[in-house]
Write a structure and sequence with these properties.
Layout: H1 41-46, H2 59-73, E1 77-84, E2 89-96, E3 99-108, E4 111-118, E5 140-146, E6 152-159, E7 162-169, E8 176-181, E9 186-189, H3 217-225, H4 232-239, H5 245-255, H6 264-280, E10 287-290, E11 296-298, E12 310-312, H7 315-364, H8 368-379, E13 390-394, E14 403-407, H9 414-458, H10 460-466, H11 468-474, E15 491-495, E16 501-505, H12 508-516, E17 524-528, E18 536-538, H13 549-561, E19 571-577, E20 581-582, E21 593-594, E22 598-602
Length: 611
């Protein structure tokens, strides 16, 4: 159940909307049996058509929709309203004599449209909580009107003795919903628009055009005469309301006229064709879905279109499918772009890490001078006294044996000062070995990532399937409060001292997924012997990589920590290649059979950081 919170009307009323819906199998429809009436003179007086753009839903599509809404929604009771953030979509749910219907307003930049669908057929695929808007519940829909021949419609609603207007601007991604009182004064805006309280609503301004409804040859002749150098198709496209490039081309094709140099009979034929095409949008009938270069829908089968369209029971249903599929196609493109960018960022981070490792290696390479200073102190050991802060000794490693000053710790004994320098030497030598190992691992990881990047660019689908586990691990973990939550991974990720990554399964079923979905056959797999615990995988950057003895010991110690033997002083850990681990049929979660395993005794050690 979704809890609806009250909608705050005012300047800030915006539409945060995330909604993905499944297209329906059927849809209510009606003929254009009534003439559209204007809501008020003030709305008409302030109305201007907007500049020409090539919309996915034209004014003629809205003409069809209004006829449908008038047939099915008048007298219906509004039972709820919902809007969602991510996809910029809002729904008005209405109870009618034929059931519950949903009027959808989708303003998504990649798939916008307005349509009516049975509420039961809507399939939401979002984790986002819907929010009500405009407090329209219990209102009765009294009328639906298209303003002129434009992509703006008004819904007249009564709530008891109060009358209000809901104005829907079906302008694609730039559309909006407005709530007006009976005097056409703005009460609230669904999307973020600024307005003064009590200001009268004014529709968007734009270019005036010639109506195609009942167009005469004289009207068309005058229009073409005003643009003598422009082909007829482009004049119709730009100056006839509701006609986009496709419809203009269809009119010229159906009329069988030339694009330029029209005779008198040609003009008559073209005017009649334009009027007939416009009238078809007022008829109940089939919707046709076209995908040639651009997704478009029409209530007619285009004679000038070679490709066979997909057939829908109604035009509005085709509009709903258009919105969904355009968004889906864009999401696929966005996913590809996002994935490739994610890998590019990982490559950039690795290159930065390698530069830092190289710098650290250069700095740590001078550890040998600590050994030399320790040996010089041993040679002059009889001269050392507790409390000395410095001593001058002969450097026997340099020709001429020059004097060199060596700093001492006054609080230490002579033997402790000598040991201090040898300890620094050992630490530097071991640190340098680790840094060099980190460099080797990072270089191998960089090569693997660059190969992945190349494969994704050359054949994304095949590469995505091949590297699905690696890509899942690369994705950043997001907060549970975020609108977009990455899929939960079945493992925790830790980094060894050498920079090598290990995966630690979380529980029984997660252990199975970690082992069989995220581990490659050539990677090392670990588990505590004869004791419940996590499956652990040492991730290898490539097939030829072999973990060092130090890395195996460190990973085994972490494996022991994530087991029931955590509190033991010494724990046996088995390890083998992942390809020698198999899952018995019908075995319990986490239960596996292992072959060719080796064993190592370790002290359970807690990892430094949970990523």
């Amino acid at each position: 159940m979704v809890e609806h919170l009250p909608f705050k009307q005012g300047v800030d009323g915006s539409i945060p909307s995330t909604l993905t819906f499944m297209t329906t199998k059927w849809l209510f429809w009606s003929d254009h049996s009534r003439h559209c009436e204007h809501v008020s003179n003030s709305l008409l007086e302030s109305h201007h058509t907007f500049p020409y753009i090539r919309p996915m839903q034209t004014a003629l599509h809205i003409k069809s929709l209004v006829a449908e809404l008038r047939h099915h929604l008048i007298g219906g009771k509004i039972i709820s309203t919902e809007f969602y953030k991510k996809e910029r979509a809002a729904y008005l749910f209405v109870k009618t004599g034929k059931g519950r219907l949903a009027l959808g307003f989708v303003y998504h930049p990649h798939g916008a449209g307005v349509f009516l669908v049975p509420a039961s057929k809507i399939r939401l695929e979002t984790r986002e909580k819907p929010w009500p808007f405009f407090e329209l519940n219990a209102g009765t829909i009294d009328d639906v009107v298209q303003i002129g021949l434009d992509r703006i419609l008004t819904i007249k609603i009564s709530q008891g003795k109060k009358e209000i207007l809901l104005v829907a601007e079906a302008l694609g991604p730039n559309g909006n919903l407005w709530l007006l009182n009976s005097d056409n004064e703005v009460q609230a805006s669904l999307r973020r628009r600024t307005f003064e309280t009590g200001a009268r609503y004014s529709p968007p301004k734009g270019l005036e055009g010639l109506s195609p409804l009942g167009m005469t040859a004289d009207q068309l002749k005058e229009l073409l005469g005003n643009h003598p150098e422009t082909p007829a198709q482009f004049v119709i496209e730009k100056h006839v309301l509701g006609f986009n490039r496709t419809l203009a081309s269809e009119a010229v094709h159906r009329a069988g006229v030339a694009r330029e140099g029209l005779s008198g009979d040609d003009v008559v034929s073209l005017a009649t064709t334009i009027s007939d095409l416009a009238d078809r949008f007022g008829e109940a009938g089939t919707g046709y879905y076209y995908t040639g270069g651009r997704i478009e829908v029409y209530p007619i089968k285009l004679a000038g279109w070679e490709e066979q369209p997909e057939k829908f029971k109604t035009l509005s249903l085709a509009v709903a499918a258009m919105c969904t599929r355009r968004q889906s196609q864009t999401e696929e493109v966005d996913e590809r772009k996002t994935t490739i960018q994610m890998v590019k960022r990982a490559i950039k981070r690795l290159r930065t890490r390698l530069k830092k490792i190289d710098a650290d290696i250069a700095e740590a390479s001078d550890f040998d001078h600590y050994r030399r200073q320790g040996e010089l102190l041993q040679i002059s050991f009889d001269q050392l006294k507790r409390g000395m802060a410095e001593i001058a000794v002969k450097d026997v490693y340099v020709e001429g044996e020059p004097s060199v000053d060596i700093t001492l710790n006054p609080a230490l004994s002579p033997a402790e000062n000598v040991e201090m320098y040898f300890r620094r030497y050992r630490k530097g030598r071991e640190g340098l070995d680790i840094m060099k190992r980190r460099g080797e691992i990072s270089t191998a990881e960089l090569g693997a990532l660059e190969e992945m990047f190349s494969d994704l660019e050359n054949n994304y689908e095949a590469a995505f399937a091949q590297y699905e586990a690696e890509l899942s691990a690369l994705r950043p973990r997001t907060s549970e409060r975020s609108d977009t939550v990455s899929p939960r991974l079945p493992f925790r990720s830790y980094t060894l001292s050498t920079g090598l990554t290990i995966y630690v399964g979380r529980d029984g079923s997660d252990n199975d997924r970690t082992t069989f979905e995220y581990a490659r056959p050539w990677e090392i797999w670990m588990h505590v012997q004869q004791c419940p615990g996590s499956h652990v995988v040492i991730k290898a950057p490539n097939k030829s990589f072999e973990p060092s003895k130090r890395e195996i010991e460190e990973a085994a110690a972490i494996t022991a920590w994530f087991s029931k033997a955590r509190n033991n002083s010494s724990v046996p850990v088995a390890y083998t290649l992942r390809k020698y681990v198999r899952k018995p049929r019908k075995a319990k979660p986490g239960l596996v059979m292992v072959e060719r395993e080796k064993s190592i005794m370790v002290v359970p050690t807690k990892p430094n950081k949970d990523q």
